[in-house]
Structure formats: C-alpha cells, structure tokens
Amino acid sequence: MNKIALTSSEIAGLWSTYIQDSMAKCILQYFQHHVKDTEIHKVVTEALTLSQNHVMQITKIFHSESFPIPHGFSESDINLSAKPLFHDPYVLSFVYGMSRMGMINYPFITSTISRSDVLQFFVAANKSTTDLYQRCVNLMLTKGIYDRPIKMNYPKQAEYIQKHGFISGMLGHKRPLNAIELTEIFVRIERNYFAVILLLGFLQVVKDKEIKQYLIQGKGLCDEQINWLNELLVKEDLLGTVPVTMEVADSVESPFSDKLILSLIYLLNQIDISLVGHALSLSMRTDLSTHYSYLITKILAYTKDGYDLMVDRQWLEQPPLATDRKELIGKS
Predict the structure, then answer these.
(1) Which residues of the chain are in CATH 1.20.1260.10 domains?
(2) Are 310 and 263 in contact (CB under 8 A)?
(3) pLDDT digits (tens, 9 = 90+) for 169-198
(4) How many CB atoms within 10 Å of residue 332?
C-alpha cells in the first residue's frame, strides 16, 4: 500500500501545534518549578505532560515523512533560576486560558484533517485539552478564583424579533443586551484582564526598549477594551465585570527569552483577531458591531507591529511554503 502524504492542512495543523506546544513546554516548566500550591502544581504538571507528548508525537510524524523539524522553543528560552513572576492563582488561570485556546484551535484543525494517524492525534488532543479545562474550572471554583459570567433572568416564553430596530444601538432607545452578546462581552473582559496581568509581569522584566514600548501599547489596548465594555454594562444597569485579582509578583528578572515573550503576545493577538471576529458575527446591536469592527482594525495594526519586531530580530519562524512554480519556470 502506498503511503499517503500529508496535505497542506495537515502540515499546517501539525507545524503550528508543534510551535505552540514547544512554547507551552517552556512556560509550564517554569511554572512547575516555582508553583507552591500542590493542587495547582498537579494541574500544571498535567498540562506540561500534554505539551511534551504533543511535541514528541508530531516529531515522530515529521521524522516518518522526512519533514524538517521546526526549531520552536527550547531550554535556552527559559531561566528556571529566575524568581516567580506570577503568584500561584494566576498560574492556574494561565493553564485555564491555555486549555481554552486549545479547545478553539483543535476542533478547527480536526475538521480539515483526513489522514487517520493525524486525525487520531488531533481528536485525542482535543479530548485531553477539554479534560484539562474541566479540571482547571473545578479547581478555580474550589479556590474561589473563577469569575462567573453575567447572570440574567429567564425569559417567560420563546419569542420572535418583531422590529427592525432590534439591531439599533447607536442612537435613541436601545434594547437590552441578549444572552449571546453578554457572553461575548464577558469573554472579552476576562480575556483582556488576563492579558493585562501577563503584560504587567513581562513589563517588569523586559529590558529591550522597543519590546517594552510594544508591551505598553498592548496593555493600553487591553485597558481600553475593559473600560469600554464595563462602562457599557454600567449604562445597561448591569454591574461591570471585575475579575478576581491575581497580582504579579515583584521579580524583575526575566524567566523567559525576549523571543518567547514577543512570540507569545503575537500568538495571543492572532487568536484574539478570530475571537473578536466571532463576537462581531454574533452581536446584533450596532454599537457592539461598530466597536468590534474598530477593535479588529486596531488589533491587526498592533499585530503587524509585533510581526515587524520579530522579523527584524529574525525570531519569526516561517511556516512551510508551497513550491514557487514561477521561480522554477524562470530558472529553466
């Protein structure tokens, strides 16, 4: 039987997952080394084991295909001797956020896969990541650090939209926010609060002035989103969402290379563009859709600035390219 070659979608999924999990390995090794809470340590160890296994399995597949192994990230990108940069509750929050990103990425990748061994890998990855997410949520609830989404009264009955004005929101009377819109608002506030804490920690330890200025700019973008959405909730007579505080420690010694820090922010930006697009597609009030459209433009511009910083430093690994037929024809 002839061996079935990897398709472009299978290469893309495996390559991207290798880069992300090699990064996650470094971050989780550092957290595992420093976390004191035994229950959180157990969750971090589980997450680290998953990332290590993913890297090993993808390496095996690439070797069998004589496909070049990406460089990704390695021991040279972490400093285990650096003091803890984040307190234990935020470490748990990080694993929670990381597993949630996996639950977004893996199903999409899986839907583009057909080769049996690669399909089996991503199905298993999604299942194990979902299990990890569930454990994170349960532990956060137990420790009182899970910020629950906004509550609302149940409707009396099923209803249909009666007025075209249901989508209005810029001028005049605005209908109440619906459950779908409230969910997206909560996720955006929670995610940006998570990013603010992460950026605060990195700002304490990064020495490169250009990268520090870039992180300051990112924190400002996160603060802007949190403030706008919280103000909207207050105007709607809903309490603004204030996530549980998980402070940054006072260390000024970087646990990670500047390459890893910038790459992590770049990755989070890429995912955020998709999530804002998702919120935009589901929001039926014009004030929300206008805000999300504005946000996508700003995040795209911010991501481009990060791209430029990484390329200038030769830190951005190039995804596998299709054969340039025009170049080959020109050489013949």
Answers:
(1) 8-143, 173-312
(2) yes
(3) 555 567 889 999 999 999 999 999 999 999
(4) 4
Class of the 8-143 domain? mainly alpha
User: Which is nearest to 81 in space by CA: 258, 201, 254, 257?
Assistant: 254
Q: What integer is the mean pLDDT of 1-7?
A: 80
What pLDDT score does 172 carry? 52
- Model-level pTM? 0.92
Residue found under tokens 């470094």: 26
Mean pLDDT computed over every residue of the chain: 92
Burial of 17 (0-12, 13-18, 19+ CB in 10 A): buried
Neighbouring residues of 237: CB distance < 8 A, sequence distance ≥ 6: none
Dihedrals phi, psi of 280, to nearest 5 degrees: -60, -40
pLDDT score of 60:
97
Structure tokens at 12: 């893309």
Domain 173-312 CATH superfamily = Ferritin, core subunit, four-helix bundle (1.20.1260.10)
Contact by Cβ (8 Å): 260, 75: no
